[in-house]
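Q: Hi! First time doing this. I have a protein sequence and I read that you can turn it into a structure. Is that right? Here it is:
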Amino acid sequence: MKELMLGNKALARGLYEAGCSVVSSYPGTPSTEVTEEIAKYRDIYSEWAPNEKVAMEVAYGAALAGKRSMCAMKHVGMNVAADPMYTASYTGVNAGMVIVVADDPGMHSSQNEQDSRHHAIASKLPMLEPADSAEAIAFARAAYEISEEYDTPVIIRMCTRIAHSRSVVETGERTPQQQKPYEKNPQKYLMTPANAIRRHPVVEERIRKLTDLGNECVFQGIQLNRIEWAKDQEEPGENVRNAPVPTDEGVGRTGIICDSTSYQYVKEVVGDFADVLKIGLVNPLPTTLILDFASGVDNLFVVEELDPVIENHCKALGLSVHGKDLLPPESEYSQNLLRAMLGMDEPEFMELEEEIPSRPPVMCAGCPHRGLFYALHQAKVRVMGDIGCYTLGGAPPLSAMDNNLCMGASVSMLHGFNKACGEEASKKTVAVIGDSTFLHSGMTSLADIAYNQSPSTVIILDNSITGMTGHQQNPTTGFDIHGDPAGKIDLEGLVRSMGIDHVSVVDPYNLAQCSETLERELMTDAPSVIISRRPCALLKTAGGEKVVHGKPLVNHPERCTGCRSCMRIGCPAISMKNGKAVIDRTQCIGCGVCQQLCRFDALEG
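A: Yes, that's right. Below is the predicted 3D structure, encoded as structure tokens:
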């Protein structure tokens, strides 16, 4: 059956059809929907893991037991999972294991533009890169077959545009897989130095065989790499092949090597009037295939987003190519960018006469983090930030965050900052971290604080969900990936068991309580934790109970003096019109935070 399908959904479908049995992931945009879609297939065991390293190890354990498995993450999550991944390359697998990673060129929802192809190269693992939804299904099937034939985990690299765009796919039936028996084999799986050193030559030989596979292009009927020669090879087309290019060689036949989204841009720009080598197996890259392609063209270009991985490979083969000398090494590409590279004119386009208003990122109306961040802003403390929707607390007018680095880093940074600056610093510095992020990688950092008795104050923002990536469950919510009852971690009990004696719980809608608790804990000469607890404003249920909001507030313009005190919290439901505060009742959930700032009772519930 043919269907218009999202890239991530198509990849999930392909994994399902290929007989995947066990899935463990940590949510991270743009990878999240892969696991969310897989969770809809109840004949696959799927779960949200506390972090990517755990997810990788769960998937590896399942593959070791003889079941096809998968773990998914975004690019920065692969850093967390790198430890088991690199060694899994040495041990190989029993049943097929697929690692899905989604890169984010343009940093739509990320703190860096990391290129995950480097992880594939460094770990010596094969990496497939689909360029549309149909290839996502096909490559999922191929990945398991390659994994089992070449005894290796296989990485599938998505990117934002492929993950979140739609194209036509043809779905098939699921192919059930028999569980492969596990056989004890310490020489293969027990990675002591004596065993591991014997496995390294096996990995190198595997890379050589996979390079041959890339040169052959096709694996079990699935085309991994392909050359698309221009339609008219005898008579160069006027569109591109005779276009001036900024080279010393002059004009002639143009060849373009590309992958992933870049392939789509290239085909839109050049159509059938340039020769294209489309790479789907991006590690290891082919050798003779590229040399054969290069021998048939006069001017060779490499179009790839982010780092010059393919370009450097071509140069190592002795080829003269143009790539990053004409294209930027950052952000996403576009059709017009490629037209400029090829010396083509931009097409005509229509400009909008209306000015589109800007829409800066902002915490939602009624966000439980807003009151806590207002208290931090008022206290004029340094705030070590972390990764989550609460990172928006660093935006004006709250501006209550000094930095953010990576998942879980806020707690460690706080400890290091206070140790470097002394006791006075600890009285004016805190860390903020979400409940899901705390369980991801903040626990070990808090253990460091407890162990070394650092007089540091950590604030856990518990909004009863993993909010940033679209409301996924986590070990503090009491529900699993399907919404069924699951084990629930007691944050207060966990923190106390780690040796933290000073533990407070506050309601972030209560500004006075937040400020008083913050002031008290900052003066404590011992490790302390404040848990700011209130469900995300967008949740319908939390902890199995219905989330009930208050009625939207009513503004009384006759009482409003226009002092703008209510605007200091940056709530999108409040605006100023004709010098008076106005409440947007379609957004307001009656949290009452703004009421606590108004001295004239101009806002009422």
